[in-house]
Amino acid sequence: MSDPIATDPIATASTATGSISTGPAAPEPDSTAKPPVRIFLVVVDESPELQLALRYACLRARKSGGKVALLYVIEPGEVQQWLALENLMREEQRAEAEQKLQKLARDVNRLTGTLPALYVREGNRRDEVLALIDEEPSISILVLAAGVEPEGPGPLISYFTNRGLAKMRIPLTIVPGGIGIDALDAIT
């Protein structure tokens, strides 16, 4: 049976002292360096549970000195036969997305005292969530709220708690859709 320390390429035994060396000494921590800011990503949609996810993210950001990021994904339409009509619809959807994000940004500012990062993307919602998380290393937590409808918690939660979990590089926080505002405030 081999010795796990001896086979570790980083750790080597010192024969002279019998001590273990783990490579170069770690640099002294910089006492003036600030810890990285935690960014809570909330996916904006038309679901009623959006307000729960947003409130949770805002309260956690405020208490931890973090920030909130909002992602609105414009999913491709089914009518793509006429380019002019498609472009007009895309412009209208983008204007709606920006209006909704501005309204939510005011809510975030009221709850946290900071302005959120705003993202508008076009494509499949779950693919765009993963792409943004990969592109923005500062995003540290994805916050979603579960639906209370009989068909399940929602497509993003269903995906990210199954096949999509392996693609995540950050934790996923799921806020129960049936939780009340008072209970939510009490746990954050």
TrEMBL record:
Signal peptide segment: none
SUPFAM superfamilies: Adenine nucleotide alpha hydrolases-like
Coiled coil listed as a keyword: yes
Sequence ranges assigned to domain UspA in this UniProt record: 38-176
Biased composition, class Low complexity, residue ranges: 9-25
Keywords, in A-Z order: Coiled coil
Protein's UniProt keywords contain Coiled coil: yes
Disordered: annotated span: 1-32
Any Pfam family the entry gives: Usp
Gene3D superfamilies, per database record: HUPs
Coiled coil (UniProt feature): 85-114
Protein name: Universal stress protein
